[in-house]
Amino acid sequence: HEDFIEFQISQRSLAQYDKDVIHEKFTTLLKMSGLEFNKTIDTEYPSWPPDFESKITSVSKSVYKDLFNEEVKIQAIHAGLECSYFSHHFPDMEMISFGPDVLGGHSPDERLKIRSVEKVWNFLVALLKNLV
């Protein structure tokens, strides 16, 4: 039985290039250590670069403004894992991701702002009506 250290890394990024750079830096550090290592990739999360000029983004901004009388804050964050899979398999599909306010995500303290659920629901219904 040999002594070993096991690293499990879960990488997500908006751009594949950024994931490749991080992967290469980590591999370089392992090589510099002089230790023997084996590398196995179990799961690869696809990237999902934002398209701020898409039609669905434009419609979403308009619907949000009409519904809530304020500008929507559009930003790219490291979420939307499900969208990245759809984007990978349907590259021409326009999509957005939105949801209620989550605090402490992926931690024992994860919680949801209940009041934000109604706002998201109303936005979803209005958006779907405008897309049909």
Which labels suit this protein?
45% helix; Peptidase_M20C; mainly alpha; elongated; Peptidase_M20; 2 strands; 132 residues; two-stranded antiparallel sheet; Peptidase M20 dimerisation domain-containing protein
Radius of gyration: 20 Å
Number of helices: 4
Strand order of the largest sheet: 1-2
The major sheet is characterized as: 2 strands, antiparallel
Number of strands: 2
Q: What is the overall shape?
A: elongated
Distance between the termini: 62 Å
Mean model confidence by pLDDT: 88
Order of helices and strands: HHHEEH
Approximate helicity band: 40-55%
Structural class: mainly alpha
- What is the domain tally? 2
Query: In terms of per-residue confidence, which ranges show pLDDT below 50 for 5 or more consecutive residues?
Result: none
Oligomer description: single chain
Beta-strand percentage? under 5%
